[in-house]
Amino acid sequence: MAHGAITPPVGVEDVDGTRFRQVMGRFATGVVAITAVEPGTARPTGLAANSFTSVSLDPPLVAFCVAHTSTTWPRLRDAGRIRVNILGEPQLEVCRRLALKGGDKFDGIAWTRSPGGAPAIDGAIAWLECSVEQEHVAGDHVIVVARVHALDEDHDGHPLVFYRGAYGGIA
Prior knowledge:
Blueprint: H1 17-24, E1 29-30, E2 32-37, E3 44-49, E4 52-56, E5 61-67, H2 73-77, E6 82-86, H3 92-98, E7 111-113, E8 119-121, E9 126-138, E10 141-153, E11 161-163, E12 166-168
Antiparallel strand pairs: 1-11, 2-3, 2-6, 4-5, 5-10, 6-9, 7-8, 9-10, 11-12
């Protein structure tokens, strides 16, 4: 055994993916839309994520996770500046659109270009404009650490929340 390795408790079995998802579903998360203008085009692109967190105050860093299978993430990464739009409770359809594979994800989504160039989704309750600082491979996802360059609150309202496999608000 390597120095510092942790020995699993006796009798602990491998964790089943379905059971892991079920138990982790008890942890409510907010939902964000990570957006950018695709390099070399004027087309907006984006993805929805519910694995978003603050990491550091000094320097200001946030993190989110993206599946290795994402075809959108490489286009976002190469954009230079990305925008994290914190979605409000009424924005479930925005989340669904950005979770789609392929096609025009922004069809039907109202947005404007932020001062930094990234798509600002109308109705988001807050936003952060960031650049990618680091990426860390972790299982079937990549943990992205991003430096915050600007941020603000846009609207009052309740966040869109993901809990027990469903979207909703705070009751």
